[in-house]
């Protein structure tokens, strides 16, 4: 009885070692296969549609004025990122005012627009006065 336990234990350890060997061999072959695939089909960097739209907007003439304003105010954002933050702000404030505070649609839209326009001008005013005081 004692001898059979030792034999089973030894067989289990050998099976574990053999399984680890096979797993490592499988991983090595998989890496080689991935290398072959990369030589056959080179990987292209893909961009999301939103990123492509942002790049197009940053290159357009419409964003140049905003980009200059951001740069003069020492705000390290692209024009598309700044506009994206405002779009997110519109959605966020509308949901907060309309869904959480149960305001009607028109007042929540007006309040949202007022907050975002005010924050836009306040940002540049504060940054401009802080640049002058330095």
Bulk shape: elongated
Tell me how many strands there are. Answer: 0
Mean pLDDT: 88
Which structural category fits the helices and strands? mainly alpha
CA radius of gyration: 30 Å
Task: Specify the number of helices.
Answer: 5
Give unreliable regions as ranges: none
- Helical fraction equals over 70%
Query: How many strands, which pairing sense, and closed or not: the largest β-sheet?
Result: none
Helix/strand order, N-terminal first: HHHHH
Task: Give the tally of structural domains.
Answer: 2
Span between termini: 88 Å
Give the percentage of residues in beta strands.
under 5%
Could you explain how this protein is built, in words?
The chain is an all-alpha fold and 134 residues long. It folds into two domains: 1-44; 49-133, no CATH class. 84% of the residues lie in helices and 0% in strands. The chain contains five helices and no strands. It is elongated and about 85 Å long. The mean pLDDT is 88.
